[in-house]
Amino acid sequence: MKDVLICAGLLFAGVLPRESANGQTVTVKAEPPTVSFTTVEPGRIDLAQLFKMSDFVAVVRIVSGDTENYKTTMYKAVVVTSFKRTASGQTIYFGPYDGGKMGSEYVVFLRIAKEPAVPTTTPTAAYGTVKYMEVFNEGYSEMETSYACVFHEKDADAGCDYGVRVCTDFIVLPKEVRAIPPEKNDPPFGCRWVRKSNFLGLLDQFADKPGIF
Question: Rounded to whole angstroms, how far apart are CA atoms 66 and 125?
């Protein structure tokens, strides 16, 4: 009975008995496993610099998506308005972040992926093997556009207009650009609305500047 109690005490203390080659009992401390985590923080990038860093810049409309047949989520989209190295009406494929809404429009800043997207199921699944582009900066180079009633100004009809949702904690807008709500209001996650016409006007300016590419 004493032997049982001693063994139990050793186990609760985190010490495990083990037989040695000469028949004697030795004790070995059980070390807890070491777990390491790697976190990647998005960068804080000026909008003009984001434009310069991107291979493609456009307003696109998502027409379909696939979350089953590729290593990451893959979207099929049509270019609505081109600002850099795309053409209106062109079909593109991009990923890898979830959350894209079918039929919705996004302003996307994309980089060409090094390798094509290959289905992990069968070769002809979904879109097949396609060249695709990547959203970068931890997803903040993709910006939703929507009709929003947040622009409360004297010249606005009930404050409603088409806007672009920009996470200004990570994407730095020019000082003259008005974002809603103001930064002093400190909205959750620092994502604010900018009038779509104003935002796209900025991209037009970047596209016209020599050397911005």
Answer: 10
Among 90, 82, 89, which Cα is nearest to 54's?
82
The secondary structure of 81-97 as a DSSP string is EEEES--TT-EEEEES-
Angle made by CA atoms 193, 40, 142, in degrees to the nearest 5: 30
Question: Are 45 and 172 contacting, i.e. CB atoms less than 8 angstroms apart?
Answer: yes
Q: Which residue has the tokens 């920009």?
A: 166
Residues of the chain with CATH 2.40.50: 45-208
- Helix (H) / strand (E) containing 144: strand 142-149
What is the pLDDT, as a whole number, of residue 188?
54
Q: Looking at the domain 45-208, which fold is it?
A: OB fold (Dihydrolipoamide Acetyltransferase, E2P) (2.40.50)
CA dist 58 and 146 (Å) reads: 15
* Cα distances (Å, whole numbers) of residue 170 to 16, 25, 176: 50, 59, 17
Q: What is the pLDDT of residues 160-208, one digit of tens each?
A: 999 999 999 999 999 999 999 876 655 556 789 999 999 999 999 998 7
Residues of the chain by 3-state class (helix, strand, coil), percent to 5: 20, 35, 45
CB 74 within 8 A of CB 132: yes
